[in-house]
Structure formats: C-alpha cells, structure tokens
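Technical appendix A lists one of the benchmark inputs used to test multi-chain prediction within the project. The record comprises two sequence entries:
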Amino acid sequence: MSQTITIDPVTRLEGHGKVTIQLNSKGEVEDAHFHVTQVRGFEKFSEGRPFYEMPGLMARICGICPVSHLVASAKACEAIMSVRIPHTAAQLRRMLNLAQMVQSHALSFFHLSSPDLLLGMDADPATRHIFGVAAARPELGRAGIGLRRFGQHIIELLGRKRIHSGWVIPGGVTEPLSSAHRDEILAMIPEAYANLKLALTAYKQIASNFQQEIEVFANFPSHYLGLINEDESIEFTDGALRFIDPQGEIVEDDITANHFSEVFGEAAESYSYTKFVYYKPLGYPQGCYRVGPLARLNIVKQMGTPLADKELAEFKQIAEGPVESSFHYHHARLIEALYGIEKIERILADPLILDTHVRASAGVNRLEGAGQIEAPRGTLVHNYKVDENGKIVWANLVVATGHNNRAMDRGVLQASKAYVKDGKFTEGALNRVEAVVRTFDPCLSCSTHAFGQMPLVLSLVSSNGEVLDRLVR
Amino acid sequence: MTDAVEVKTLIIDDQEVSARRGQTILEVAREHDIHIPTLCHVEGLSNVGACRLCLVEIKGSNKLLPACVATVFEGMEVVTNSERLRRHRRTILELLFAERNHICSVCVSNGHCELQTLAQEQGLTHVRMPYRNPQLSVDASHDRFTADHNRCILCTRCVRVCAEIEGAHVWDVMGRGINSIVITDLHQDWGSSTCTRCGKCVQVCPTGALFEKSKIGTDNPKNPDFLPYLNLMREAR
C-alpha cells in the first residue's frame, strides 16, 4: 500500500509551501514534491494600469526583496521608454540592490538557516530558532541582526523607507544622495565587515560537520544561470545573463532581458502555483537549472573586489567544475554579502555619487520592455507590454523561485530518500528535508517567519486517505 | 457713497468672533484659525457643498449645515467639533473609501493626498462598509496627464477650476448618483478633447485621480495655492 508524507507548511521560509513525500508499498520513497500553495495574481491585476506605476505596484509582491522588484520593474519600464538612466542614478540603484542583497542574505543565513547549522539539525525545535542562536552564540546573534540592519538602514537612507520605498522610478530615482547620508553609510561599513567575518569564520568551522547533508542536499549536476559583467565578474543590477552546463562550459552568453523569453520557457505542474522555468533548446524538464548565490559563483571567474575574490578562490576549491551541492548556497551567500559591503564602499567613492542629475524622462517609445536583475535568491525578469497610451496590456514575471523550482523538487526527493527509511521518519529527518528547501532561500511570498512554534504537521497517509502516523511540532 | 460693512457677531466653538455679512462659516472660522475639515472646497473656487465634511452644528437647529456654503447670522452659535460631527465625518470618509478603489500604498499621490490626510486626521482606522471595488477606466490618452476614475471622489474641483479659472469648461460630470463620473468634453478621451493643457485640474485634484504622467509618490506634490493669486490678479485688472 502506497503512502504519502506531507510537510505543511515548510517552516523558516519566505512564504507558504509544503512538501509531500510518496512512499511505495515497501515503505521506500518513490517521489517527492515541493509545492507552492499560494496564488498572488500580480500579473493579472496590473493590466490596465499606467506602466510608470508598475515599480511601486510590483514592489508590493515582497517585503523581503521589494528592491529587486522595484529595480527590475523600473528597468522594464525604461525599456518601454527607451532611455538610459543617468550614471549617478544607476550607481545609487546598484547600491540599493546590494544593500538589499546583504540584508536578505543575513536574514537567510542567520535568521532562517543558522539554527540548523549552529545548533544542529536534530536540536530541540523549541529552541531551534534565531533566539536559540542568540542564546547559544550571542556574538553571532548580534552579528546577524547587525548585518541585516546595515542593509536595511542603507535602503532607508536612500529611499526614505526600509520596505516598499517609492524612490526608484522609471527613468532613475526621485532624489539624489546627500553627503550626510553618504557619510552615515560609510561609518557603518567597518562594523559590517566585522560581522561578516564572524559569520564566515563560524560557517567554515561547522561546515565539515555536515558532510552527509552536503552529499544529499540537492547535490547533482545541473545547468546554472546568472548575470555577469564583460570582465566575467559578478553582477547584480546590469550586465547580461550567462548560461553554463554541468561542466562549467558556456552554453549561451550575453542573454539580454529582451531576449530572455526567446531562450527560456515556463512550464506548469498541477501541484504548484509556481512555474518551472527551463532552457528551451533542452526542453522541459531536462532544461531546468539553478540560479542564486551558488549559480552566480559557479558562473563568474572573479568577484571584482579583493576580499570577496580571496573567498571565491577558496570556494572554487570545493570542486573542480561547478560546485554542485545546494548546501554550499550558504557559503556562497556569505561571500556575496562580503562582496556587497566592498562594492557599496566602492560606489560611495565614486566622484559623481552626489550628483543631482538622477532622472531621465520619456514617454512610450516601445510597446514592449523587459528588465532583468539578480535578486538575492536568483535571476528576476519583468516583462511588460503596453498600449500606445502606456497602459499595461500584458505582464509576465519570472522569479528566482521559478528558476530553482525543479532543483528544489529534485533536492527534496534526494534528501527524502536519504532520511526516510522503511516508511519511518524522525523530527530531525523532517527538518533536513525542509532544510534542503531553505538552502535555496526561496521567496514564496515572504509572509512566514516561524520560530519553532509554527504548527508543522508531518502525516503519514495511506492511499485510501487513512492517517497512519502523525508528528506535530 | 459706499455701503457700510455690516458686522455680525457670532460664537464659534465658545469663541466670540465678528464677521461681515454674507461670509460663510468656513471663511470666518479660518480667519480665526479654527479648523474645519474640507475636501471639495478649495480657496479660489466657488463652493458646492458636495463632500459634507465641513458640516457643523448650529445651536437651536437639528440640521447640520455645510460650513463652506452656510452664511453667518447675528447671534449664531456654531460647534465645529463634537463627537456627533466626528462620527459623521468618519462615516463620510468610509463611504468615500468604500465607493471606489483607494489603495494608498500603491497610489501616485501617497503622502500628498488630501483624502488620505483627512482619514488620518479624523482617526479613520477601518472601513465598516463592504468595498464596492468597481472596475473603472484609466484615461491615459493625454500626453501630459492621466485620469484614473478609480481614485476620483467627485469633488468637482476639476470641473470648477476648468470653467471658472481657465474658462475652458472641458471637465463636467456625467451620470447620476453612484454612476456619476467626471468627463472631458462630451465624454471624449482627454487626449482628443479641447483641453488647453494648463494642468490646473491636476493641481487642484485632492487625490491621485488626476496626475502628471511619470510623477509618482513623494515626487508628486500638488500646488493648488496658485488659485487665490490668480483671482487677485484678475480682480486687480
């Protein structure tokens, strides 16, 4: 008799998802899926709105990464306007995007995943949360909160608000940076470096304790996609996309936002509201791939800043070709956060950073436009079509979680096979299956932050619907 | 020989004040720094008493009167702020919010909207009526401005400024009751209407219903203060 194990909701994620594990009559794992159970409808209800309202509207998709949607949306609008934004505006937006990357990575590493990493996958769920980390390792708890504050405060200094700022608009930004705010950001940088160093040191100390997890946490060859600069350094806001194969060879390069939909398709499965993005020449599901920190670090040859480059060289030692285990997303995330701090410092040294020309203006010059950036968790593409008056007639968003959807599915199956034996599972096994999803830091809608008290239910259900076993946290 | 100014004395909120004959309660209150909330009223345009937010209590009468159009009389006793008035004002605001689609967080006028400011000032924390969520059109045919009927509260400021100040009378109201809508010319697209492109209607619009294209949020303050100046200049001629 076949059985199904359901983990609903998966905790310590941004959004609401569940995992189902199907067992065959022998109690062996046969299949497993990660389900995104919400539908948001932004693409549909934005129809009819003037295109220049889109950044503000789209930012509301997410409270963790509103900046990603703001910037990607503004870039799509600028493609419709056919304008190039002023240099200072581009630099300020780059800094905003990096600040968000640092705060989001801090959130993912410290608040969501460090309880598993620092306290252990089998630690008591009652204390397996950020407060547990703060109690056991106070210096790391403080570092996590400090790093997140660093990123959030920069966002506030630039855009007046930490969340859902209206500062980014089609054509640039509404206000230039003041010298007082520049100095305030510069003053925060030494502490950010110190906090990041603490995190990297702690991670390297404990990473070797997770050999088994590294083996089975979505550890398989795959293609990777990410933005890259012409000098093959990492890029989050501009540049073009590069697609590499499991050996690290370039399959397709210089993919601009306008050509994205020619190269990548989206498939739908009945069990998830999130679409599955694939590389068209390989078809679905063979053409599925990974994005995000791991993919970006696998793609680039250099970070472009000295400290991060040193860390990248160490990271590249993990494997000869691309690093395959999704467990290493955590490591990649910290390296990117380090890069973020270095790059923000560099941007602030730009002699034109206080320039007051931060906005270009134009009307509708093209009826379609697309913008792509790297959100903290991976590539984000906004694509709009407008009528001659600039009203949206069609919108499509390809989000990072969609790119990673298939890999998360496969990762959940791989971990389930390793940790669910003979139809039996423990709380620690359940947490490991969830932890696979957490490595990707998916953003399902950014509403869920569970600190041990989330009503996590794992049930073993027979094929006729009878609940055979039940574990409640 | 000029007529002597006829002075009326009255009490507003326990304060004895004097006024000229023919002055409205609102004018007198403002001359004495007594705050009465308004929405359809704007300095420099005629008053229509449409929004009813300026309702005040008059001693000796059960009827509430709109301060923007009610004129003063000798011995009048006016109360501008009572629990009854606050309740009515909140209800009026709730009805405005429920009638069309006012989503402040993604509105172009967020932070510069008179409806939003009034709701905050009157302590409006929630709307008790079900939202109607009508599907109204957005007219983006004008090369400089956009009209979003979802955010219109039918205050008719645009109609009045266009007729009384600009002298073009492009804007008017079509339909009756809840189906009313402001239109340009005989319900043509704004872009193909006889609009003179002066932008006065945009500046006096209290919400994000009329706005300049490509200007959003913190970027979009409105400046209706030009009206008294224009009137002054016109009178001086």
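Chain B has six helices and ten strands. The interface with chain A takes residues 105-106, 108, 110, 138, 140-141, 143, 146, 148, 191, 213-214, 216-219 of chain B (CB under 8 Å). Comparable benchmark entries are summarised in Table A2.
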